[in-house]
Write a structure and sequence with these properties.
This protein is of the alpha/beta class and 330 residues long. It has a single domain, classed as Rossmann fold (3-Layer(aba) Sandwich), CATH 3.40.50. It is built from ten helices and 17 strands. Strand 4 and strand 5 form a beta hairpin. The longest helix is centred in the middle third of the chain and has 14 residues.
Length: 330
């Protein structure tokens, strides 16, 4: 069974220590109640991932663990077969002992767009909301973060992250919790909070922004990346049954509307730092994710539209600061 004991020890003397009042009960309930049919199989695979500490690690320019020279060809083949049990791999890519996991998303491209615009992560405590398999968490660690916590309710993403961590070694201060943000109490503790590719999946986007705000310390930084549409401050697309074949897309604001939402949620210094149309090279099917991908979600006669006729995916990145209380008014 996947254990969270090392995380409890890690936060016992940190700004997150008050989380220990509620977190063990929440995660204990998850361990008892999670009924995903493949979880026992995935946990058995994780228990087979016993390897020497890697001879090289790079989280600053990619996620590379091991040069590939420590394992025999047979051992590498066995490891690759074990990692394939965790398909589909959506966020990455990863290089693990010379095995290239070519994920659906080139998440490194997103990081390259986002990273130049954020406050340096050196010595910061970071929360990644909707972290997927944890690719960006490793990149945050590579940029000097003191401690990175990722949350995502998917058991598969948890197991993918655990696979990478067991190969990399448990000494790294990066942890994945299988929770949604609605399960977190207001912690007011993180220096930086990321929410990338989450907002459009939330039925109440303003509530999501407030939940993100409540995890930040006063003066902390939010990094928000989400789908947007063209338009003015009053433009919001509410798709019908599906958007790009996804049935859980609720609101796509314009960049100007999203700026207004962030200010309404009591963020200041709100800046849109990047807008990018998702390319067919950034999101695609691969042997590690053989299902449908972006090309299948777009109109084959006009890729500027989804198959439903909506504007094709365009992503905006915002940075904003949690407002600090005016001490003169306290």
């Amino acid at each position: 069974m996947i254990s969270f004991s090392s995380f409890y020890k890690h936060i016992a003397d940190s700004s997150l220590q008050h989380w220990l009042e509620t977190l063990p009960a929440i995660l204990g309930n998850w361990q008892r109640e999670n009924k995903h049919g493949d979880l026992p199989k995935w946990e058995k695979v994780l228990n087979k991932l016993h390897y020497p500490l890697p001879d090289t690690i790079n989280f600053s320019t990619d996620v590379m663990v091991g040069s590939g020279e420590q394992l025999t060809p047979g051992e590498k083949e066995k490891l690759e077969n074990l990692l394939k049990i965790f398909k589909p791999w959506r966020k990455g890519p990863y290089s693990l002992h010379g095995i290239h996991i070519d994920t659906e998303w080139r998440s490194d491209w997103k990081w390259d767009r986002v990273q130049p615009h954020i406050s340096p992560l050196n010595n910061r405590t970071v929360l990644d909301v909707g972290c997927g398999s944890g690719y960006h968490m490793w990149r945050m660690l590579g940029d000097g973060a003191k401690h990175v916590v990722g949350i995502d309710p998917s058991p598969l993403f948890l197991c993918q992250f655990e696979a990478v961590k067991r190969i990399a070694g448990d000494q790294h201060p990066v942890h994945f919790l299988p929770l949604g943000i609605e399960e977190l109490p207001p912690l007011d503790a993180f220096d930086t909070v990321f929410s990338m590719g989450v907002l459009y999946h939330r039925r109440s986007p303003i509530d999501h922004l407030l939940q993100l705000r409540d995890q930040l310390r006063a003066g902390g930084e939010l990094v928000l990346e989400t789908l947007v549409v063209d338009g003015d401050e009053n433009t919001v697309l509410v798709p019908g049954d599906r958007y790009g074949k996804m049935n859980n897309v609720w609101f796509l604001p314009s960049a100007k509307a999203l700026e207004a939402w962030l200010k309404k949620a009591d963020f200041v210094d709100v800046k849109c730092v990047d807008i990018d149309v998702t390319s067919l090279a950034e999101q695609r099917s691969t042997p590690w994710m053989p299902n449908e991908s972006l090309v299948d979600y777009l109109d084959p006669s006009d890729i500027s539209l989804t198959v439903e006729g909506y504007p094709a995916p365009k992503r905006a990145t915002f940075v904003a600061t949690k407002n600090q209380p005016n001490k003169d008014l306290i």
